[in-house]
Specification:
The complex is a heterodimer.
Chain A (H helix, E strand, L loop, with lengths): L1 H6 L3 H13 L7 H25 L11 H6 L4 H22 L1 H11 L4 H20 L3 H26 L7 H20 L15 H27 L7 H18 L9 E2 L7 H20 L1 H11 L1 H6 L4 H27 L1 E2 L6 H14 L4 H17 L7 H15 L12 H4 L7 H8 L1
Antiparallel strand pairs in A: 1-2
Helix pairs in contact in A: 3-5, 3-7, 7-8, 8-12, 8-15, 8-16, 8-17, 9-10, 9-11, 9-15, 10-11, 10-15, 12-13, 13-15, 16-17
Chain B lengths: L3 E10 L2 E11 L4 E5 L6 H8 L7 E6 L2 E2 L5 H6 L2 E3 L12 H7 L8 H7 L2 H20 L15 H14 L4 E5 L7 H18 L2 E5 L3 H7 L2 E6 L2 E6 L1 H5 L2 H13 L1
Parallel strand pairs in B: 3-8, 3-9, 6-7, 7-8
Antiparallel strand pairs in B: 1-2, 1-4, 4-5, 9-10
The chains are: A mainly alpha, B alpha/beta.
The complex binds adenosine-5'-triphosphate (ATP) and magnesium ion.
The site of magnesium ion has 3 residues of chain B, from helix 1.
């Protein structure tokens, strides 16, 4: 049997071989190359997207790479696919491949500068791509901002459920605390003619104070987390799941009964402070700080606690403090994400932070991969986009997504990209023939 | 003054008296052994002294300071390092990270450093890398630094445990059956490493062992434990000829 399969490759092996042949030249494309290629694609869409879409019989530019069009009007499938191919796949494929020598040279040059410079160059490019892409429709702008907020949420939950190996369910609760606190802050201070009366400060100050509102929300969330953490981490038992779930429901009914902030009807009229660049900055900040944390020995203590608390304790790790810190830290970021969320939607009610939200974040964490920053980014963006793309299917969406998750759980029990370290120094490096050189630069 | 003293320590697990009126005194730099049949209470004594359990009665002094009720991490930080009988390594951490982790309480960069990657953190992590590599060198596995521990052979895992315990800068090092499950070759290497560690760092060592050859070769003084009580204490020579010890071991063999 083995000799047979060796002489005549199966279909699967052939497909695999074909893919790896196509992919081969792209192995030497550095991140910079992909970003530039994406920039070309979104620029192209901006310039010729609309006429091309009309020419193909579409009413407007497909918002999410044609997925929505295909699912809602199957007859237009060829047009949608053609559009995506002409605007995205071909330009990105061609540009990434043929600029690779150039982008590798630039990346090598950049590697000589401090990491901050290199990172900034990449971030500016990434933001430009995002900005131009979102410029096409308000819908994209909304989806992109919500996806980035999901990144913050997923990553922070991963700290607890992945890195620390506990099971926390209170993230929607922390999110709602952050959302309400930040909303109250900005509305009371900067919005006139609202339930709280006239604005107390000149509205022009508002955007500058927004970070303060978010951090306040985060801090109060962290304080709420203390109420969960104290009873949960007192002993070596496993109470967190239950206590945190209870916490989520308590917070929800608390806000439902708080008439000052609208009770079950919720609160609206948040000023439009969570613009694309602002959400982008906070997302990058959260990734940077969380990644710093989990890569430090102090952060890795979480893994030690997860994989053997007794040994961690005997190796001088203050396990209780470690768990508390991580939990409060995660709650802080959930609060910040909540504040951003409130100012993106500009309307929140207690129902936005219930069991549905919990399922969504948990799915993103486990889909993307435990104990992995990259995994959380992939999980959050991936599921956000999939969920939007499947919107035309209505109720079937809630069948397809769970099935997908179950398949992931079967074939990759820890998620798509689990247990990896996100090495910031390495992702910007040039790629290709000279691996020794690359290793040298990182050392 | 002795480095570590234990006075009249007794411990119950529910109705089971696992340790009874146990006394110990270790001088700086001394190597001591603890032997006894299976279930005699040896590991329990280690767990009591290192703070994993708190004794029902008795007191424990390290350098004259009472540590009886302290938490394991505080005790470890004060200079009591240990290894575990059945390895307790961390599944997803690299060998290097294992050793670095034992420096936890010595790191001073705090949360600010952890969150923002300050230059202080970079410096301390670098210094910790160096120290950890030196210890891996000492136990003979520097080439395994980047490996995940689950991939390693048993003997190497024991060495990781030892290096990790050394990273806590112990004044007394507790080794719970450091050669358990090793083949003769690994055993000889391990004994050489223990000797070398002792001569280079010079801390006191307290060792649990089943293999008589190891204890008799390494230790200056040996205690024999049976049913939670010390039945003999003395030099290897004295222990070898003690009728009580022989009976405890013979009795065990008869049961088997
Ligand atoms: N956590 C515990 N709860 C209840 N009983 C325990 C506990 N730990 C140990 N014991 C009991 O205490 C006694 C002493 O156990 P201990 O592990 O200290 O023996 P030991 O001398 O280390 O044996 P071995 O040579 O097999 O390692 C045994 O009877 C054991 O069953
Ligand atoms: Mg034992």
């Amino acid at each position: 049997m083995t000799t047979n399969s060796a002489s005549t490759p199966t279909i699967r092996q052939r497909i695999r071989a074909l893919f790896s042949r196509i992919w081969e030249p792209y192995r030497s494309v550095p991140l910079l190359g992909w970003l530039i290629a994406a920039l070309v694609a979104v620029g192209l869409e901006q310039l010729v997207g609309l006429p091309l879409a009309r020419g193909l019989g579409l009413t407007k530019i497909p918002a999410l790479f044609g997925a929505v069009v295909i699912l809602s009007k199957p007859a237009l499938t060829p047009s949608a696919l053609l559009f995506t191919t002409l605007i995205y796949i071909l330009p990105i494929g061609i540009v990434a491949r043929f600029t690779a020598p150039l982008t590798n040279r630039i990346a090598a040059k950049l590697a000589e500068y401090p990491l901050v410079v290199t990172a900034l160059v990449h971030l500016v490019l990434l933001y430009a791509v995002l900005h131009i892409w979102c410029d096409i429709t308000d819908y994209r702008l909304l989806v992109a901002r919500l996806a980035m907020i999901s990144i913050i949420l997923t990553l922070s939950l991963n700290v607890v459920n992945g890195y620390m190996g506990e099971f926390s369910c209170s993230h929607p609760g922390f999110m709602s605390i952050g959302a309400y606190v930040a909303s109250a802050f900005t509305i009371v201070l900067f919005v006139s003619e609202n339930r709280f009366g006239e604005a107390l400060l000149p509205p022009a100050l508002g955007p500058y104070m927004f970070p303060l509102a978010l951090m306040l929300g985060g801090l109060i969330s962290a304080f709420g987390a203390l109420l969960v953490a104290i009873p949960s981490f007192r002993t070596r038992g496993d109470y967190l799941a239950i206590i945190s779930l209870a916490f989520m429901f308590i917070v929800k009914s608390f806000f439902e009964n708080m008439e000052v902030v609208g009770g079950a009807r919720g609160i609206s009229n948040q000023p439009d402070y969570a613009t694309l660049p602002i959400v982008f900055l906070w997302t990058i900040l959260s990734i940077w700080i969380i990644n710093n944390f989990v890569r430090s020995t102090m952060g890795k203590a979480l893994n030690a606690v997860r994989d053997g608390e007794l040994a961690a304790n005997a190796m001088t790790v203050d396990t209780r403090k470690t768990k508390m810190t991580a939990f409060l830290f995660a709650a802080f970021w959930a609060g910040v994400a909540g504040g951003l969320f409130a100012h993106v939607l500009r309307y929140i009610n207690p129902d936005s932070f219930g069991i549905r939200k919990l399922a969504e974040v948990l799915a993103m964490v486990y889909f993307g991969g435990l104990n992995s920053v990259t995994g959380s980014v992939v999980g959050a963006v991936g599921l956000s986009l999939i969920s939007e793309a499947l919107r035309p299917l209505d109720i079937f969406k809630w069948i397809i997504i769970p099935i997908m998750l179950i398949l992931i759980m079967i074939y990759r029990p820890t998620g798509l990209i689990a247990f990896t370290e996100f090495n910031v120094e390495k992702i910007f490096l040039p790629k290709g023939r000279a691996p020794e050189g690359a290793e040298h630069a990182s050392a | 003054m002795p480095l570590l003293e234990v006075h009249d320590m007794t411990h119950f697990f529910g109705g089971l008296r696992a340790v009874h009126d146990y006394n110990l005194s270790i001088e700086p730099g001394q190597i001591r052994g603890l032997i006894g049949p299976n279930g005699a209470g040896k590991t329990t004594i280690f767990n009591l002294i290192t703070g994993i359990y708190h004794p029902t009665e008795g007191e424990i002094l390290l350098n004259g300071e009472e540590i009886t009720r302290l938490e394991p991490n505080q005790i470890a930080d004060r200079g009591l390092g240990r290894t575990f009988q059945n390895l307790r390594l961390w599944r997803y951490l690299s060998v290097l990270d294992h050793v670095k982790m034992a420096r936890y309480s010595k790191l001073t960069y705090g949360l600010t450093g952890a969150f923002f990657g300050t230059s202080k953190r970079v410096r301390e992590e670098k210094a910790t890398d160096k120290l950890a590599m030196d210890l891996l060198e000492l136990v003979g596995i520097p080439h395994l630094a980047d490996q995940i521990v689950t991939n390693l052979p048993y003997g190497a895992q024991r060495r990781v445990e030892l290096a990790r315990a050394l990273a806590t800068e112990p004044k007394v090092l507790f080794l719970d059956e450091p050669t358990a499950g090793m083949n003769p070759e690994e055993l000889i290497q391990m004994m050489a490493i223990i000797r070398q560690v002792h001569s280079e760092i010079g801390m006191a060592i307290y060792l649990i062992e089943h293999r008589m050859k190891v204890v008799m070769d390494l230790c200056e003084i040996i205690q024999t434990l049976n049913f939670g009580e010390v039945i003999a204490e003395g030099t290897p020579e004295e222990i070898r000829n003690d009728p009580g010890v022989i009976e405890a071991y013979l009795g065990k063999e008869v049961v088997i």
